[in-house]
Amino acid sequence: MSATARILEHLQRVRQTAPDRWIAACPAHEDRSPSLSVRELDDGRVLLHDFGGCETGDILAALGLQLSDLYDRPLEHTRAPTRSRIPARDLLELVAYECDVAGILLMQIAANQSCSAVAWERLALAAQRVNAARLQIHVR
Ligand SMILES: [Zn+2]
């Protein structure tokens, strides 16, 4: 599977705008009108640009993917020293943010004595994002 196909498969509300370009909903923020641009380069690499301002690392983390997923040939087996990683500081900030979100939702749940589907989904997303961040740290 090409890197582009792999990325597109994980995105929602994907629309092709040119032979090598797509637009999709950004998974890293509440994206009402799709603002994530996906572009396939000649060498097979995928460029992500979110007009909502999200960083590529955050977008990939929200998808449960890694920077290497933007390349046609995953770099795992080559153990290339050039392998990009999201800085630990960014990961920590992402985790801290998700903890804040979870904390606010848990306070709501405690106050209402019930958990809405929306709150439940957001909590699941927080868990998914924290786990994605953890996986980034384990990639060495
Ligand atoms: Zn975004």
Topology:
Blueprint: H1 3-10, E1 12-18, E2 21-25, E3 36-40, E4 46-50, H2 56-63, H3 88-112, H4 117-138
Antiparallel strand pairs: 1-2, 2-3, 3-4
Helix pairs in contact: 3-4
The chain binds zinc ion (ZN).
Q: Overview of this structure, please?
A:
The structure is a single chain. With about 140 residues, this protein is an alpha+beta fold. It folds into 2 domains: about 5-80, no CATH class; about 90-140. It is built from 4 helices and 4 strands. It has a 4-stranded antiparallel beta sheet, covered by helices on one side. A hairpin with a 2-residue loop joins β1 and β2. The radius of gyration is 16 Å and the shape is globular. It starts with a helix and ends with a helix. Zinc ion (ZN) binds near residues 26, 29, 31 and 54.
Based on helices, strands and strand pairing, what is the structural class? alpha+beta
- Envelope shape: globular
Uncertain spans, ≥5 residues at pLDDT below 50? 77-83
Q: Output the strand order for the largest sheet.
A: 1-2-3-4
Bound molecules: zinc ion
Mean pLDDT: 85
User: Beta-strand percentage?
Assistant: 15-25%
For this entry, give a set of tags.
140 residues, alpha+beta, 45% helix
Question: Brief overview, please?
Answer:
The protein is an alpha+beta fold. The protein has helices at 3-10, 56-63, 88-112, 117-138; strands at residues 12-18, 21-25, 36-40, 46-50.
